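Hey, quick one: can you model this chain's 3D structure?
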Amino acid sequence: MDSGHRGEELTLLITLLFDWIEESQQANLYYGNIYLRGAMERYFYFDAMVHPERLLPVLDVCKEWRYQNNSSEHIAIYDRYYSLANQRSSCKKIYDEVFSWLRIMSDYYFHFKSRCRPRAKNMEGRGKRKIGFFTISQRFIHFFQDIEQRFDLEENVYFSSAANSTSIAKDMARNSIFAVDESFKLMFSEFFISPSHKLFPVYFRLCFFYQRISATLHYWKPDVLLFAEGTSHYDELAALSASQLNIPTVRLQSGRAATLHSGYRNMPFDTMLCWGDAFIDRYRSVSPKAMHIACGSPLMDEVANSEPTNNHNSKNLIIFTQPVAMEIISEQDYLILVQLVEYLIKHTNKINILIRMHPIDKNTAFYELARANEQRIKIVNSPEFSLANIMNMGECAIAFASTTLSEAAACGVIPIILKTSNQHSYFPYPENHGAAIVVESLDTAIERIVEVMTNPDKFVEMRRNMQQFSYQFFGPSDGGSVNRVVKLVRDIANNKETDG
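Sure thing. Here's the predicted structure for all 500 residues.
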């Protein structure tokens, strides 16, 4: 089963189980008056995608649902996860039980560690607006950097959920403030479930983080709090806390929502800034309450504001790799791309190769080819090369099961999708818009690549489709998306009305 289908199936199961808990045990989803269902769903979704056995507490709580249910499809999904959880050895079951409590201890440890960091003072009297940035990893620090630098009239404050907050703080711009944890009291009188309850360790962790982020937000009182993608349980809890403190929340799109999993459902943000109108439709279908506004994509800004760097004497093919994953990409599939490069190097001197390795792809085959063919093959990995840099260097791109091919289509780089399994493409499916080529063999891939490079006039209609696809999903390519985001955020911080 591919990861996309598995994510959809797990989302369905979690939704059904929490529907039942809400109907039969609603109090278990509250901490005081704070509704924790969204945070719980996100927590269990991301945990169970990696460790299916960690869904067991929910499955145990919902055994009655299992025997009341009349849908054979739903029962089959439940039974499959229950079977996976019970295939563990006795030692592993004991370890998992203890581990759930050790996680609580680690939360306390990192809270006290944060409290020991140097603490910046909230200088409210300076009259500056405060822009808050909520992050769960270094990746989102990098995502926010360009936007943050535009807020030169404001005070920028970062709030983090991450245990490795020290390294996150080092990644921030120098003019920003890193908010360390404030002291707080966990309101045990507001607990609705006991320590003996199957969900208690997760429930406790969610309540703990809610109080932790609430105390920190209360101290700093940002005028607006920004989120990147916003699908984790930490994002949910920070947004709920901000809402209680009357702090407006704004979620910025940073991914493509290939699967509308639990993290995208009923998002708690006041405003959701999206790339294009088609993404608004997608997010609104599962999170209708927010104000949705199309601002364009930062990638399109970078492409629009930079000059093409390709050499007219040769054409560049971009290869986006994916790690071997048996449910989607086998080692044999991966070898097809290696053979493609070997063929092009041997049989033509007019096509050079740019290889963008997936961050977790550890295969060394392309590195070896690049060392042996330095004039023809170049590894163009992040962060040395931005995605926009690469798009400006290529005429066409090829990959299997890569969401990046949608960006290629939007940037005017003809995408070729190598179909190696049923799950060969992801939303927004550029091939369905006439904006990508699908091939099913190495020979056909070679033919289409050579065709794109040597006969560009044949693809005039496809390029028109790619332009329409780009505007529909990624918004205007006028180089102004970040400026639009900054203006909207400033308007919200200054209590001005925005048009959704």
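One thing worth noting: The chain has three domains: 3-90, 97-117+127-302+480-496, 305-474.
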